[in-house]
């Protein structure tokens, strides 16, 4: 009984060691991505990067990007006005994105029963970007805005539309 416990403990420790080494290597790989070829941010802009972990079948994934900023709002629904523009990095074949916005927001115009205002993140419209763990996603945003993203996975189930 004691031998089984000792052997089980040794196997468990070995598995933990191997798993931690794999995760350490992944983190190291992500840190080694080079962004030096990308332009320096224009005045009034900040540079954001997203470095994705490798996945099997990366074609089944997409990244949803959106900008946001804190605004004082009421009960209405608001959206940050602006546009993501895709640029090509000359000589590299890479892309980067720039969010052009003067910071204006638009919203619904419902009457709010309680006219109190509060601070809230107001999001822009989204852009979908191909998942690619080999190169970073590089985005330039106006200062005082932040970049958020979601990872979307394609459903393997296909549906057929009904012909009319």
From TrEMBL:
Residues 1-20 form the signal peptide. The keyword Signal applies. It holds the Pfam family Ecotin. Gene3D superfamilies: Ecotin. Keywords: Signal. GO terms for molecular function: serine-type endopeptidase inhibitor activity. InterPro entries: Ecotin_sf, Prot_inh_ecotin. Belongs to the protease inhibitor I11 (ecotin) family. This is Ecotin. It comes from Lutibacter agarilyticus.
């Amino acid at each position: 009984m004691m031998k089984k416990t000792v052997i089980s403990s040794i196997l468990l420790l070995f598995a933990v060691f191997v798993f931690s080494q794999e995760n350490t290597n992944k983190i190291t790989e992500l840190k080694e991505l080079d962004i030096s070829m990308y332009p320096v941010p224009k005045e009034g802009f900040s540079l954001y990067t997203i470095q994705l972990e490798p996945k099997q079948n990366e074609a089944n994934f997409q990244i949803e990007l959106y900008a946001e900023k804190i605004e004082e709002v009421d009960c209405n629904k608001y959206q940050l006005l602006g546009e993501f523009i895709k640029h090509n990095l000359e000589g590299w074949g890479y892309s980067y994105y720039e969010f052009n916005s003067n910071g204006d927001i638009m919203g619904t115009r419902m009457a709010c029963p309680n006219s109190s205002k509060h601070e809230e993140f107001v999001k822009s419209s989204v852009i979908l970007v191909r998942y690619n763990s080999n190169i970073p996603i590089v985005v330039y945003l106006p200062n005082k805005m932040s970049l958020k993203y979601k990872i979307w996975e394609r459903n393997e189930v296909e549906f057929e539309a009904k012909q009319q």
